[in-house]
Amino acid sequence: MNKSDVYKLLDEKQQIFIDTADKIWGDPELSLSEHNATKLYEELLFELGFEVEHAVAGIETAFAGKFGSGRPVIGILGEYDALAGLSQKAGELEPCEEVAGGCGGLAKGYGHGCGHHLLGAGSLAAAWAVKEYLAATGESGTVIYYGCPGEEGGAGKAFMAREGLFYALDAALTWHPGTANEIFTGTNNTSMQVEYTFNGIAAHAAGNPHMGRSALDAVELMNLGVQFLREHIPNTDCLHYAITNTGGISPNVVQSKATVLYMVRSNNVPNNKKLLQRVDNIAKGAALMTDTTFDRRFIDGTADLLPNEVLERALYANMETIPLPEYTKEERDFAAKLDATCPKEEGELPGMGAKYDPEIRKKVSELSDGGNATLNDFLCPYFHSGEQSPGSTDVGDVSWQTPTAQIMTATWPAHSPGHSWQNVSGGKTGVAHKGMLYAAKVLAATAVDLITTPELLEKAREEFKVTAAKGYDCPIEPDAVPVPVEEML
Length: 489
Fold this sequence. Notes:
The chain contains 15 helices and 15 strands. By secondary structure, it is α/β, with parallel strands linked by helices.
């Protein structure tokens, strides 16, 4: 068996993985509450011949499917959590929520606005194809599909990394749905989320306000303190917050309980921890000023990403070799209509390289009709970078324990925003399915390369030794436990 046979297998069995993605789309579950998705994946992994491990790292919705023996051990990462506030009917050209009584979480207002229904199924397809390769050839090697919950506000991979899970891998591969076909490169900010619940004393706001101690005042004073902090932090740092409990709707009652959730970002974990300490101190000050107390709950944290150029180039070589998806007229027409509903930024071009490299920008401009194409049906030129993006991902935690790389493929129209109703609407189209299967082929082919070309893996690991030399500093606090997002709604 060779890589061409792997692609043929994926084409023949594609409906299994398309159906899986669509089922997950139709029953969206929030971070760390993906019980139905976990059951579906574990049953399918078993049917496909994997050895299945439930509740990996003690997380009920984390799992693993393993096949093979010996080295190298290649991990393929999958996700399957949805987002709140994104209930949307498929195939619509305007915001259109699923009515009550609809499919699963859609009726609750959830939806797959980040495409994790595709991500999980595409990664499973890749892992299955590698399994079939190992079974047919008898090559030494192990493939492990990791079901990683809670990427959207749960940091499942970081909790898994806290247990040292990914040190056992020789390399890890993953992908993400997007609007362009490209290597995902560079690094990103770290992040930490902490919930502060202030406890005061209720009282009649007119009759005896002097007897009350306002938890809401404490939240407001904390937010004011953080606003002043913003002037005194590096421009790489960010502070975000949401008041999740204001203490009720009665203004004539002194609020006895109020909660604010903070997300603190910085360029690396040590700096993030220092910044978080400053936010903690502001919470202490707010409590002192209002004569209240507060409970602090650590929610999650993620590390910065370590790019691996050797793995990136291996992935890109397969992206160049494997034919890009071909679309029907109907698929292109719908993509164009959906794209017309998306916000567009003047001069915006697809791909990471177009932001930083003038030659790549020129090439991408030609390929995308100056950024006006409604579907990016081309492969962006290869671009490797150490540039830092403001967002965060728990793939970063994996990258500190094993060489890691990822790609993005076009599963949505060219200008579809992240976490949008457009992404949910287009999540079951042929464009989405074809982008998912293209990603599966690229990941599977690269895993085969790592199995059959020891020197390639050796080079990737040599690079990793240099980039990860200072060691993994886990952003998850030692006594923290995973918190389902639903608990904070």
